[in-house]
Amino acid sequence: MADSRPRDRRGARRSGRYPARAAAKAVSDSGREKNSGRSTLVKQRSTVFPDLDNDTPRVVLKRIIRTQPQVSPLAPQISKHEETEEAGSELPSKRVSSTVEMQLPDLVPENTSITTFCMTKKRKKLSISEFERAADKRLPQNQAQSMLDSTALARSLRMSLGSLIPPDTVEQRGLLRRPKNRKAIDMEAFEGGVEQNMLKRKAQNYLVDSQTASGIQTAMLTSDAEIMLSNTELFVQPEFDEQSKNKLSALEPQLSDSKTSAQRSKISDAAQEEARLVGLVSTVGTNEGRTQRYSEDLILDHKHVDRMTRVSPKPPANQQEDKQDHSQQSNPMEQLSVSEEVVAGTAEHHANAGYSEHLEKKPTEKAESQITAAQDARVETEMAPSEEEGIAAGSVGHQGSREAEREIAKGVGGGSLGRHSHAFASSEKSGMKPLKEAVEQADELEDQAIMVELDGLEEEPIDDEAEDPESEEVSMKTPAFVRAAAYRPLLSPPRPAKPAAPKSPLQPLRAKPVPKSSGASRRKTREPEVASSLIKKIFSHYVKMPVARDAFKIVEKCSERYFRQLSSDLEAYSSHAGRKTVEMADLEVLMRRQGLVTDKMPLHVLIERYLPLEYRKLLIPVAVSGNKVIPCK
Amino acid sequence: MADSQHSNATQDSRERLKAAVHYTVGCLCQDVAEDKDVQFSKQTIAAISEITFRQCENFAKDLEMFARHAKRSTVTTEDVKLLARRSNSLLKYITQKSEELASSNMEQKEKKKKKSSAAKGGRTSGEQEVAVTESEDSNMA
Fold first, then answer.
1. Helix (H/G/I), strand (E/B), else coil: A229
2. Distance CA A78, CA A64 (A)
3. Element (H or E) spanning A628, and its range?
4. What percent of chain B has pLDDT over 70?
5. What is each CA distance from B127 to A231, B107, B122, B136, B140, in whole angstroms?
6. What is the sign of the dihedral through the CA atoms of A262, A241, A201 and A288?
7. What is the Rg, in whole angstroms, of the alpha carbon atoms belonging to chain A?
8. pLDDT-based confidence at A605, cuts 50/70/90?
9. How much is the pTM?
10. Which residue in the set A572, A585, A592 is minimally distant from B82, CB to CB?
11. Antiparallel, parallel or unpaired: β A628-630 and A622-624
12. How far is CA A256 from the centre of its chain?
């Protein structure tokens, strides 16, 4: 400390460093400092201002340490020093003498003297005074931050480091970090966005599928799709708009294509198509993938279009256009659209439901009142298929509804349908039926959507294809018959009056379709299927690769066969044990047969390994205290 | 030691059984080769015999499991039919054979009854025979 005074007198800046060093380090450094002080004395003049570009950080720091007033851990004195710094350096000597410990006063006058010195030199660089002022600004901040810090050097360092920033702001804005204006992540918004994205994707898939499948898929909303889609506004008006739009869009291209060729379609073509349809029906009957159905639908659409062009007096184009536009209210047009849609949706009963819904939509535009009297209309439609336009689709639609009814009632075979279709074909020529029929059918279809069987629908187009229009009675018989079977319990009294008349002539014919339908219906009986979307999801999850659509079909087939075999095995095992219910023992036998359960791998180990805890608790009885076994048996 | 001996014994019997199977398979393959004019290599025969042996083990385990599933201690033709369900043609064949066996058994039983009845003598036996045959017919039908 004593050494510092002479140095102060000399006004060497290095003394400023010395006190700091003395405070922080051992006296041994002093020797070094002296030497360095001399050198720094020379350098001081040249490097008074922080030359950030050329100097190394070490040099800059040294300078800062030298120049910055040493902050003492004692708060009041520090403030004093700050004030003194600001005040000026008129009485450096006094300051020096005031506090032996505090070296700041030494520095302050030194700085000011240096400042003056520098100013006299008129350096254009940043003046120390500015630097100091900026540093002073920082001082209160830094001091506020760390009043408890013991080492003065650390404090000075902090100050110096803090003071580094102002020069940056003054000189180089680029180095300064821009204020972070990050928005706090809004979890709700994020999740909402994700959900929207997922919904959009689902919707896209939905739309794509529907379009490719001629809108069949729209009806076939899988559970998850339904869940996803039910929330979006896109699908307000339960899938009606969507489906109808999709169907229309899907059908339009088909219709346009069919239009060109339809005009020249002949019975032979129809027959061929019918044959094709039969083949398709059989394949469909085996519950193949949608794509097949779509192809069938396409074929059906073509056939229908052909028929329409052939039979209907109105140009199919108009009908189609009308249908598409939803503007044309002509019965044939709507019927056509309805029928076409029905045809398209024949492959799946869901589609029928969708179509029926779609059909309903259209008719609603025209004759809402008629819908209310759906039953009556149905009767009418059935009674007078001939009245309807010659739109095959219309007839098909009717047939579809009839089919649904039939199937619902007794699963009448397709053969009867053929006859009905014939009748309808003939009826097409007879006249136009108001939309009510279509509406009625739509209603019926909708009501019976679940029960509608795929085969029945397919048969309808085939039947429509059939050229020979049978007597209306024949066609009538199906509806009458079906209705009698299906709607008696359901339909209201007003209806029976109308069907009564046509029923009588048809009744004798009922015998024929019944046996046929029973045989055929069984084949067409729609067995419960595993949702294809579920299979797709699980399969793609485990395969971790993109999968082609055909592959999905095959997988669907395989899984269906597997489950069929599985269930038949279980039935055999349970009957082998003289039981009528499948029990766990049967399943254990099955798993042993499959090779999943072996002598080395008991069933319980598999349960523990693969099933979630809830199921495990259910399956494996656990004994707990108190003579209690869970699950209690 | 007893265990090892026992295991040795089982091993020996196992080996002998395997050898027997191998021999039988070889004979069958020879017949087939003569029939179809095809050659069978030794490895093929060895493979077939090994497969047959392992499959027989599986069958035995499954049969025992089926019998236990039906709460029986005897393996019957029912169990065998259940085993053969995997292959439709095999199932048909086995069912056919089992029916034939059953009928032959019935015939044997009838003969025995006749003999016994004849030994006893009397119309009653004839009546019984008639009744038995009638019942058998119904069974066979």
1. helix
2. 18
3. strand A628-630
4. 83
5. 81, 17, 9, 14, 19
6. negative
7. 46
8. confident
9. 0.34
10. A572
11. antiparallel
12. 33
Give the C-alpha separation, A196 to A234, whole Å. 11
Contact A391, A428 (CB under 8 A): yes
Instruction: Compute the distance between CA of residue A262 and CA of residue A312 in angstroms, rounded to an integer.
Output: 11
| Average pLDDT rounded to a whole number, residues A362-385 | 45
- Three-state DSSP state, A411: coil
Instruction: Please indicate whether residue B20 or residue A248 has the higher confidence score (pLDDT).
Output: B20
- Average model confidence (pLDDT) across chain B: 83
Q: How many CB pairs under 8 A join A and B?
A: 24
Q: Cα distance from B16 to chain A (closest Cα, Å)? A: 24
Question: Alpha-carbon distance A244 to A252, whole Å?
Answer: 12
pLDDT value at residue B12: 92
Question: Where residue A201 falls among pLDDT bands split at 50, 70, 90?
Answer: confident
Q: Residues A548, A549, A553, A556: is their CA dihedral positive or negative?
A: positive
Residue A22's pLDDT band (cuts 50, 70, 90): very low
Tens digits of residue pLDDT in A115-134:
445 455 555 566 777 777 77
Identity of the residue in A576, A592, A593 whose CB atom sits nearest the CB atom of B78: A576
| Residue A151: per-residue pLDDT | 55
pLDDT exceeds 80 at position A549: yes
Choose from B57, B66, B76 for mutation: most chain A CBs within 10 A.
B66
Asked if residue A509 lies in contact with residue A477, where contact means CB atoms within 8 angstroms, the answer is yes
- Which residue in chain B has the smallest CA separation from A592? B62
Q: How far is A561 from chain B (nearest CA, A)?
A: 13
Interatomic CA distance for residues A171 and A219, integer angstroms: 69
> Structure tokens of A154?
């650390």
Gap between the Cα atoms of A82 and A146, Å rounded: 16
Phi then psi for residue A67, to 5 deg, are -80, -35
Q: Is the pLDDT of residue B61 over 50?
A: yes
CA angle B134, B137, B141 (to 5 degrees): 145
Q: Do B62 and A593 touch (CB under 8 A)?
A: yes
CA distances from A129 to A48, A103, A134, A160, B91 (A): 11, 19, 8, 14, 107
What angle, rounded to 10 degrees, do the helices at A331-344 and A316-325 form? 80
Measured between beta carbons, the chain A residues lying within 8 angstroms of B65 are 589, 592
For residue A623, what are the β-bridge partners? A629
| Separation CA A199–CA B18 (nearest Å) | 63
Tokens standing for residue A385: 């298929």
For A25-42, write each residue's pLDDT tens digit.
Answer: 544 544 454 455 454 544
Is a pLDDT exceeding 80 seen at residue A52? Answer: no
Asked if B88 has any chain A CB less than 8 Å from its own CB, the reply is: no
Round to whole Å and give the CA distance between B124 and B140.
23
Q: Which helix (H) or strand (E) holds A622?
A: strand A622-624
Query: Which contacts (CB < 8 Å, 24+ apart) does range A99-104 have?
Result: A100/A1, A101/A72, A102/A70, A102/A72, A102/A77, A103/A4, A103/A16, A103/A19, A103/A20, A103/A23, A103/A69, A103/A70, A103/A152, A104/A69, A104/A70, A104/A71, A104/A72, A104/A78
Closest residue in B to A584 (Cα) is B69
CB contact under 8 A, B69 and A573: yes
Q: Quick check: ipTM above 0.85?
A: no
Q: Are A16 and A110 in contact (CB under 8 A)?
A: yes
Q: How far apart are CA A567 and CA A576, in angstroms?
A: 14
Specify whether the CB–CB gap between A305 and A341 falls below 8 A.
no
- The per-residue pLDDT for range B78-128, each reduced to its tens digit, is 888 888 888 888 889 988 988 998 899 999 999 998 888 877 765 554 555
Instruction: Note whether B69 contacts A585, CB cutoff 8 Å.
Output: yes
Cβ contacts of A98 within 8 Å, gap of 6 or more? A105
